[in-house]
Amino acid sequence: MGKEVTISAVTHPRYNWCVTFLQGQSSNGRALRRKAYFKFKGDAREFAATKKLELGNHGRKTEEISNEERRAVLTFREQISGFGSVEGIPKLTDAVAFYIRYLKASIKRSTVSKLADELEASKDRAGRSKRHVDDLRSRLQHFSRSFGDRDVRTVTRDEIEGWLHGLKLAPQTLVNYRRVVFGLFREGLRRKYCETNPVADIDTPKVVGQAPGILSPAKMAKLIKLVMLHEPELLPWLVVSGFCGLRPAEVDRLDWREIRLHDTTPVVEVTATKAKTARRRLVELPENALAFLRPLGRGEGALRVVNHRKKWEAVRRLAGYGEPGSETTEEREAGVVLQEWPADGLRHSFASYHIAYFKDAGRTALALGHGQNPSLLFNTYRAMVTPDDAARWWQITPEGPDSKIVEFAKAS
Question: What topology is assigned to 217-407 in CATH?
Answer without folding.
Answer: hpI Integrase; Chain A (1.10.443)
